[in-house]
Design a protein that fits this description.
With 129 residues, the protein is α+β, with helices and mostly antiparallel strands. Helix content is 22%, strand content 28%. The chain has 2 helices and 6 strands, in the order E-E-E-H-E-H-E-E.
Length: 129
């Protein structure tokens, strides 16, 4: 099955061997997204709300580059470093998914950079009836 790598304009070099998104047969897989700037520096240190917003804006840019919208998201994988940030993440998350919510799971775990509080990976179905 052919696949297309999806990289929004202006995306920095990933810190590991992966692509921001991969589109195959109308399904877009968005890699785990951390609150990084173009130089892979964690932004909004200590602010789970701002980090969640930053992560979801990056995910949105990958989805839009592939020709979709956030309404096309069907599943999110959410990783938090501390359950104390759950309410803050959910408040921002609800802004990006105001209607019917995608399926998801959320776990607490360590992340690749200690200052990162949240990571999200997404699956979106784009352009298939």
């Amino acid at each position: 099955m052919p696949k297309t790598i999806v990289t929004p304009p202006g995306t920095g070099k990933p810190i590991a061997p992966f692509s921001p998104g991969t589109l195959a047969d109308g399904v877009l897989y968005v890699s785990g997204t951390l609150p990084f700037d173009k130089d892979n520096t964690v932004v909004h240190v200590g602010d789970a709300s701002a980090q969640t917003r930053h992560v979801l804006e990056i995910i949105k840019s990958v989805i839009e580059t592939a020709g979709g919208t956030m309404d096309d998201v069907t599943f999110n994988h959410i990783f938090l470093t501390d359950w104390a940030n759950y309410a803050a993440m959910n408040a921002v998350y609800a802004e990006y998914f105001p209607g019917e919510k995608p399926a998801r799971y959320c776990i607490q775990c360590g992340l690749v950079k200690p200052d990162a509080l949240v990571e999200i990976a997404s699956i979106a179905h784009i352009g298939k009836a």
